[in-house]
Structures are given as C-alpha cells and as structure tokens.
Write the structure tokens for this entry.
Amino acid sequence: MPEPTPQWEDLPLYQEPEPAQLDNIKTQLDLVLLALEALLGIGSEQMLQAAAELNLESIVADRLELWRLRQSNPNRKSSGGRKKLDVEEARALVLISCHLAKQHQELIRRAVTLLEQLAAQNREPHKAGLIGDYLDNFTNTYTERMEDGENLSNEALTRLALKLLIDLLFYSSSNGHKRMWLALLNRTQ
C-alpha cells in the first residue's frame, strides 16, 4: 500500500465531527468537485488520475469508489450508492480537489479576473463566454444531481457557482489543501 502524500499531515483533526458536521463536509466537497467539473470539463478519469498522482489509490481506487464517495452527499438525488464518508476519505477528496485546482490554476485565475472586470464594469457575469459557460454547466449539473436543484432560483445557483469559483482560486494555491480543510471544518461549527 503506497504511503499517502505528505500533505496528508497538513490536514489535522482535533475533534471528530458530529454526524451533521460530516454531512456538511460531504456536501461541500461534492460542490467543490462539481465546480471543478463545470469550469474545467473534467470527469472521474481526471479525478482518479489525481488520486494516483497523490498515492491515494487505496482510498479512491476506481470510478465506483469515487461515485460512492460523491453520492455520500446527503443532498444528492440518487438513493443508491450512499455510504458514510470517513475523515480519511474527506482528506483524500480535499487533496484531489486542490491538486486539480492547482493544475488548472491559470484558467481559474483567468475566470476570477474576468469576473472582477465584469463586476467593475457593472456587467452581468454570464455575458462573458468563459463565465457564462461555467455558470450554464454548473446550473445544469446542479439541477440534474441535487435534491433542491429545481427549487433554487437561477440567481441563487449563480451566487453559489460564483462563490465556489472564487474558493477554487484559494484552493489552487500552494497551501490550498490547508485552506480548504480549515474552511470545511469551520463551516461545520
């Protein structure tokens, strides 16, 4: 069994999360992966490749395991495949998400810069191709996969997608995995 990446040690846990906190962590992790999918057009193969590059195959071994981990999000529509997400699996998904964000940091940075420019010009974000495509992809995927997808307004989905886009910029930094882990733990309190 390969040793997990040294970044693993950067993700301490001082207290085991309560079940409701763990549900929140599961939801947030799945949303970050959904934002990466929507912006970068990546799928499970790229996520599994990142797991291999990080020596995390023992935790995220194949497409089925990745699907089960993502299905652990309690807000997912699907009733099958749900499993309890443990802390090691949450850490692995944090490292995979941040690894992918770091690999695509240039595109993420370009999208956030474009978003800032549009805001400064008081223009709608969906008017720019890159941001518009991301918002469309995010909204369509969220609506398709999440229980509340059809109940949320386009405005609410746009706000969520843009917040996640900005979060991705922070997660793409060299200490992004630490930032994401702390943000996940802080949001659960």
